[in-house]
Design goal:
With about 280 residues, this protein is an alpha/beta fold. It has two domains: about 130 residues, 3-Layer(aba) Sandwich (Udp-n-acetylmuramoylalanyl-d-glutamate--2,6- Diaminopimelate Ligase, Chain: A, domain 1), CATH 3.40.1390; about 130 residues, 3-Layer(aba) Sandwich (Udp-n-acetylmuramoylalanyl-d-glutamate--2,6- Diaminopimelate Ligase, Chain: A, domain 1), CATH 3.40.1390. The chain is built from ten helices and eleven strands. Strands 5-6-8-9-10-7 form a six-stranded mixed beta sheet. Strands 1-4-3-2-11 form a five-stranded mixed beta sheet, sandwiched between helices. Strand 2, helix 2 and strand 3 form a beta-alpha-beta unit. Helix 1 packs across helix 10. The longest helix is centred in the C-terminal third of the chain and has 15 residues. It is globular. The N and C termini lie far apart (about 55 Å). GO terms for molecular function: metal ion binding. InterPro entries: DUF34/NIF3, DUF34/NIF3_sf. Belongs to the GTP cyclohydrolase I type 2/NIF3 family. Keywords: Metal-binding.
Length: about 280
């Protein structure tokens, strides 16, 4: 067994979460690092925050694998006195590479939304907004795309589904919230890990009784409820923490990475960040 290089790690990451699956506006892949550097330890985290990078330095990690990108929007400078530049300087000065899989990990089979919907006992879900081009298909031939939709074994009240989620997701300050009738019976469930209020058209087209996502804002939520009422479709909404909806994927990501690195004859230590990057800490 041998240690991979950064370039080997990138090949593993891209095989599991193909960059072709990323949305056109997204930033995915290797953001910082020397492709020829050896990797003995990888730290997995949701966000490339300063605290996570500091943790990587203390742990002696050679690579940080994130879900969210460090530089989603273009930057004009990596001056160490700036937020993004300071992170880049810390990474480079400590010989730490940084890689992220974002919307490609949302869309891939076994990705963020697959893990989220499986917490509700649904394991045969289909993409909510499916990709259609051959370049965006996994070699296993299964459809990919943003979000998931599937059916529960039997109808349950919205509040019971919300309680099930609350028991499965990490506990957060914002908790799990319901919009609509908590007593409404639901069978068909749509989900989107992270912020998903841009997908209401797809949710309605899917015939879902309830939509589970994060970061729901007032106007999109109220308009979605009014639209459902006018169509007499009875859509309910469950809003969860952005961090909680996505961080549950990291365990599945680690398992997939362990398997793929071993298959390729590599040995590398995988560690989970102990930093909770949910920004909300108290409520009154």
């Amino acid at each position: 067994m041998r240690h991979p290089k950064v370039s080997d790690c990138v090949e593993v990451f891209d095989s599991l979460w193909p960059p072709a699956l990323a949305e056109s506006w997204d930033s995915v892949g290797l953001a910082v690092g020397d492709p020829d550097a050896e990797v003995r330890s990888i730290l997995l985290a949701l966000d490339p925050m300063d605290a996570v990078i500091a943790e990587a330095v203390v742990l002696g990690a050679d690579l940080v694998f994130n879900h969210h990108p460090l530089m989603l929007k273009p930057v004009k400078s990596v001056n160490a006195a700036t937020l993004k530049g300071g992170a880049v300087h810390t990474l480079i000065s400590n010989d730490i590479a940084l890689f992220n899989a974002h919307t490609n990990a949302d869309s891939a089979r076994g990705g963020v939304s697959d893990v989220l919907i499986s917490l509700m006992g649904i394991n045969d879900a289909q993409p909510l907004a499916a990709h259609t081009t051959p370049a965006e298909a996994r070699s296993d031939g299964l459809p990919t795309g943003i979000g998931r939709v599937g059916d529960l074994d039997e109808p349950i009240p919205v509040r019971d589904l919300a309680r099930r989620l609350a028991s499965e997701l990490p506990r957060t300050t914002t908790g799990v919230r319901i919009a609509g009738d908590p007593a409404a019976m639901v069978t068909r469930v749509a989900v989107c890990g992270g912020a998903g209020d841009s997908l209401f058209d797809e949710v309605r087209a899917s015939g879902a009784d309830v939509y589970v996502t994060a970061d729901l804002r007032h106007h999109p939520a109220t308009e979605a409820l009014d639209t459902a009422n006018r169509r007499e479709s009875g859509l309910s909404l469950i809003d969860v923490s952005h961090w909680a909806s996505e961080t549950v994927w990291l365990n599945a990501a680690a398992e997939a990475l362990e398997t793929e690195f071993a298959r390729r004859g590599f040995t590398v230590s995988l560690q989970h960040s102990a930093v909770n990057t949910d920004p909300w800490v108290e409520r009154y």
